[in-house]
Amino acid sequence: MTEPLGPATIKVGTVEVPGRAALAPLAGYTEYPFRAAVARFGCAFAVTPLISAEGLIRRNEKTTRLLATGDDDASVVAAQIFGSRPAAMAEAAKIAAGAGFPIVDVNLGCPAPKIRKQQAGAALLGDAVNLRKVARAVVAASPVPVTAKMRLGDDAGKSTLAAAKLLCEEGVAALTVHGRTLEQGLRGPVDCAAVKEIAAAAAVPLWANGGVETPQDAEQLLEDTGAAGVMVGRAAVGKPYLIDQVEKYLAEGEAPAPPSRAALAEAFLFHFDKAASVDGEERAARQFRKHLLAYLKSAPGGKALCSRAAVVACCDDVVGVLDEFKRLPEYGP
Fold first, then answer.
1. Which residues of 119-249 form beta strands (DSSP E)?
2. Given CA atoms 68, 71, 72, 78 in this order, what sign does their dihedral have?
3. What is the CATH number of domain 9-252?
4. Which residue in the list 110, 168, 192, 315 is annotated as catalytic?
5. Which region holds residue 314: left if phi is over 0, alpha if psi is between -120 and 50, else beta?
6. What residues contact 114, with CB distance under 8 A and at least 6 apart?
7. How crowded is the C-beta side of 3, counted as CA atoms within 13 Å?
8. What is the pTM of this model?
9. In whole angstroms, how far apart are CA 265 and each of 57, 119, 130?
10. C-alpha–C-alpha distance, residues 115 and 194, integer Å
11. Would residue 306 show up in a list of annotated catalytic residues for this protein?
12. Phi-psi region at 226: left, alpha or beta (left = phi > 0; alpha = psi -120 to 50)
């Protein structure tokens, strides 16, 4: 690293967001229990999984669960909503703000066919007329700042650039751009030049997203895009400490070493306890399997325990796997 950047605060409307590194929204992962585990390692800004506006206004129980939070969550959490009806998106924004979220984020990047079929997510990004209606309705209705997360269009980012300008005109307070196209999904190179053009044209702070797996990746993404910050997605699922490493590396020029095996086991159990407090032990155990597998695959020696992790059904099962994990050599294969 050439020169540490020092501490940072990014202003999103009236909200001060600490740091440059954030946890990106991930469907099925960035719910409260996982956010609390990541916050335990120092992550200050995170985004919920995408939440259906229609589900929120209908008070769907499964959808409303996604608004769960707690005192040990990240210090700033944005609630991300998706939909295509301006009235529904506006009402959902009010519900999310009423649940205590200081920022409401509009999803304009989800590539999933079931989301695009509803003319939401990445599909809404391609409909400038309705996009303006949605942005205007959400900004007018929300008592907290509104942000938006987008991905690049298949036209070298030109449609995304136009959408960014539109969103800024309508009062959106910050943007995140995933530098891959709809066709790329979550794989392939990030088009930093396109993201840089959007960041330069936007009148608001912009987080760059895509391809960050190490602190050095984050530094390069910032340098190549001119973004205010970076969002880290799937790489953080197995390494809840990664965002803190990125933050410290950007600010101080040196990333802390990964936590010890004992500290990791303690954090994984903390995550499970939070999940059980929200969903009950049995449901939490089923949902926790994917997290536990990701944790173990990312830790030295942990892969040997994956067959047991894949079938945990209660707290005792989780504790048993983690007890064995702690007994493995600190830097095993």
1. 146-152, 174-181, 206-209, 229-232
2. positive
3. 3.20.20.70
4. 110
5. beta
6. none
7. 2
8. 0.94
9. 39, 42, 47
10. 24
11. no
12. left
**One-letter amino acid of 322:** L
Q: Is a pLDDT exceeding 80 seen at residue 2?
A: no
Spatial distance between the Cα atoms of 33 and 270, rounded to a whole number of angstroms: 8
Residues 6+ apart with CB under 8 A from 71: none
The structural domains of the chain, with segments of one domain joined by +, span: 9-252, 261-327
**pLDDT tens per residue, range 115-166:** 999 999 999 988 999 999 999 999 999 999 999 999 998 787 789 999 999 9
pLDDT of 223 higher than 50: yes
CA distance 199 to 176: 9
Contacts of 317-323 with CB under 8 Å at 24 or more apart are 317/285, 318/268, 318/269, 318/272, 318/285, 318/288, 318/292, 319/269, 321/292, 321/296, 322/265, 322/268, 322/269, 323/265
Q: How many CB atoms lie within 10 A of CB 271?
A: 24
- Which residue type does 140 have? A
Structure tokens at 7: 């501490």
Which amino acid would we find at residue 201? Answer: A
**Tens digits of per-residue pLDDT, 47-62?**
999 999 999 999 999 9
